[in-house]
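#structure-requests
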Amino acid sequence: MKLEKLWKALVSAGVAEGEPEKKDAEREITALVYDSRKLVPGCLFVCIPGANADGHDYAVAAAEQGAAGVVISHAVEGLGGKDLAILKVTDSRQALAVLSAEWFGHPADQLTTIGVTGTKGKTTTTYLIRSALMAAGHKVGLIGTIEVIIGSEHIHANNTTPESYLLQEYFARMLEEGIDTVVMEVSSQALMLHRTDAITFDYGIFTNLEPDHIGPNEHSSFEEYLSCKAKLFRQCRVGIANGDDAHFAKVMEGHTCQLETYGFGAQNDLRAGEPVLIHRPGELGVAFDTSGCWEMHMHLPMPGRFSVYNALAAILLCRHFGVSETQLAEGLRAARVRGRIEMIPVSPDFTLLLDYAHNAMALESLLETLRQYDAGRLVCVFGCGGNRSKDRRFEMGEVSGRLADFTIITSDNPRFEEPLDIIADIRTGMERTDGKYIEIPDRKEAIRYAILHGQPGDIIVLAGKGHEDYQEIKGVKYPMDERDLIRDILREEHLS
């Protein structure tokens, strides 16, 4: 691709400053690169600032390794006299998004794009939508926290929303696979770092908003966090939003999309009646009726009020695709989300589930939901990650002590800390309550204890790991999938 074509895309997007020399316009660009470890001769190297390194520090090295040009947002010493084009832009991350879309031929324009943002519920909502649309015959790709799905290929995800270049590459691969629709999680970080720039979403969905992701390398304040979420609704054609959320009005301030709302409140376009909780062997579910723009009865094999909200978002979205009520019901019932209230069949006497709840807010929401079910004991097995805030440990210990009937404190990802030190911090929070607990540092043995001591009617939740299939210790990620641990335990104890 000629450099001139890429430059014109930057100019059109309003991120270009000045212009390259005329002799550089005809340069042939062999690759678009933003990682200095992937430099190749003839590439255009985009210098983006990261949390630990700044690409501008590698601009001279890029020139010496044969790059045809560099994209910079501030002056770099040592580039003078080098045989390469220098493209100056206002924001190199924004430029990367624009260049990536141009490089791959704007694949998002040929897909129906659905972006889901919010503090909680993004992952589950994307899977519900994908399952429902596939039941109606659509070919649907998915991009999110757990994985990227392109046809039959499942790719492990490193970020909730990938860097803009990777995002456009995934879109292009989806087109090659004959996919017509993509549903993706859009994180506040992605919106802040311009990863989704150059995409006009056909549909944007807002689930809810609570204080989270505020701190170093994330957001400086709740106001900034909210502001980033709000960007999606100035970047989509149709907005589908939780009208019950306390921050709904603020998030939608200045929106430029057609807006539709869902929730329990009478003001919403799609409304749910009071849900009926369903507790069967191996299933915690919910049933509810809808009114407003679509009247139907729905049964979900997922528990709690928040599952109703996730389903309402999917239902309201599916109206735009002509999905029938039968297809919708089939799709929502069939949806399974790895590590999100994932039921694992162990015993007909009690229910065991996995969930990714790894902070106090998520754990409290989960345990409060499970407490609503008419069951025996609520047993919580969890640990906390190392090299993270100690406050999280105190808070999670206090939440489990207050809401669970029995807690098994164990290890999560200790990273570079000692597991017993982390457990001691959790214990500090536990002892602020009257909750009963036991400490079993080995996670497999903690799960074994929970299974062997399960009582009729119990709900046992393994919290914190969810979809993760590793345990990080001293900088090394060792394979550890709770599903495998459970299978091993059942075999070892002759329970399978």
